[in-house]
Specification:
The chain is of the alpha/beta class. About 50% of the residues lie in helices and about 15% in strands. The chain has a single domain (about 5-185, about 225-250), classed as NAD(P)-binding Rossmann-like Domain (Rossmann fold, 3-Layer(aba) Sandwich). Helix 1 packs across helix 8.
Length: about 260
C-alpha cells in the first residue's frame, strides 16, 4: 500500500479525520495538500507534522465552489499532478427535529457535505480522466446508511454523497479511476468534543450518555479511531485498492452491518 510518488488533496485536512488521513498518506510516501478555513490551525498542523515540502496548506472554505475548485487546481499545479482526492470536509450543522428545521439549515448541510464533494469530484475528474488513473475517496458517515433523530439534514446529505459515489464510480470505472465512500461511526474528534454536547442535548441526553448509546450500537462497544479510518483511506488510495470502487465502506465497529 505504498503511496510513493503520489499526490493527494484532502479537504478539511487540518484536524480530525482529515489530518489523520493526511498523516497516513505522508507516512506512505505521498505528497499532500490540505485545505481548511482556519489558517492558524492549518499552520499549526504543518509545524507539528513536520513533513517539509511534501505537505502544503491551501486556504479555502468547502462551502465555496471557487475555493474547492481552486484547491484541486492549485494542488495539481504545485506538485505537477493529482492522484488522490479526499472529500473530507463536512459536518452536521444545525441539529433540529425535521418539523423545526429551517430551509437555511438544510441548504447549509447540502452545501457543506454534498456540493463540496460534487465540486471537488468534478474538478478532479477533469485531471484524472486524461491520465487514466485516480482515486476519489468521499468521507461519508454511517448516517448515510441509516439515521438518527435531529440529524435529518446531515443524514439526507450523507445519503446523497453515497449515491453520488456509486454513480460516479460507474462512469469512470474503465478509466483507471476508483470512487469510494468511507462511512465512519462515532469518532471522538475535537469537533465532536466541541459540538457533541449540543447534539446530545437535542437528543435529550448528556454527552456521556450519547457516547455510551452510540458505543452500544456497535459490535466492538467503543468509538472508532481516526487511525482506523485513515488505514481504510490508505488502502483505497493504493494499488491494493484498485479492485474496490463504488463501495460504501463502514468503519463503524459493526454498527450498520451492511
Amino acid at each position: 500500500m505504498n503511496l510513493e510518488g503520489k499526490v493527494a488533496a484532502v479537504t478539511g485536512g487540518s484536524a480530525g479525520i482529515g489530518r489523520g488521513i493526511a498523516e497516513a498518506y505522508l507516512a506512505e510516501g505521498a505528497a499532500v495538500a490540505i485545505m481548511a478555513r482556519n489558517a492558524t490551525k492549518a499552520q499549526k498542523t504543518l509545524d507539528e507534522v513536520g513533513a517539509g515540502e511534501r505537505l502544503i496548506f491551501i486556504q479555502g472554505d468547502a462551502m465555496q465552489q471557487d475555493d474547492v475548485e481552486n484547491f484541486v487546481d492549485k494542488t495539481a499545479a504545485h506538485f505537477g499532478q493529482l492522484d488522490i482526492l479526499v472529500n473530507n470536509a463536512g459536518g452536521a450543522g444545525d441539529l433540529q427535529p425535521t418539523v423545526d428545521l429551517s430551509d437555511e439549515a438544510f441548504d447549509e448541510a447540502m452545501k457543506w457535505n454534498v456540493y463540496s464533494t460534487f465540486w471537488g469530484t468534478r474538478r478532479a475528474l477533469k485531471l484524472m480522466i486524461p491520465q487514466n488513473s485516480g482515486r476519489i475517496i468521499n468521507i461519508s458517515s454511517i448516517e448515510g446508511k441509516h439515521g438518527k433523530p435531529v440529524l435529518t439534514a446531515y443524514t439526507a446529505a450523507k445519503h446523497a454523497v453515497n449515491g453520488m459515489t456509486k454513480s460516479t464510480a460507474r462512469e469512470v470505472g474503465t478509466q483507471g479511476i476508483t470512487v469510494n465512500a468511507i462511512c465512519p461511526g462515532l469518532i471522538i474528534t475535537d469537533i465532536v468534543k466541541e459540538n457533541g454536547p449540543n447534539t446530545a442535548e437535542a437528543m435529550g441526553m448528556t454527552f456521556d450518555e450519547m457516547i455510551a448509546l452510540f458505543s452500544q450500537e456497535s459490535a466492538i462497544q467503543r468509538p472508532n479511531t481516526v487511525e482506523e479510518v485513515a488505514a481504510m483511506a490508505v488502502l483505497l488510495a493504493s494499488d491494493a485498492g484498485a479492485g474496490i470502487t463504488g463501495a460504501l465502506l463502514s468503519v463503524d465497529g459493526g454498527s450498520a452491518q451492511y
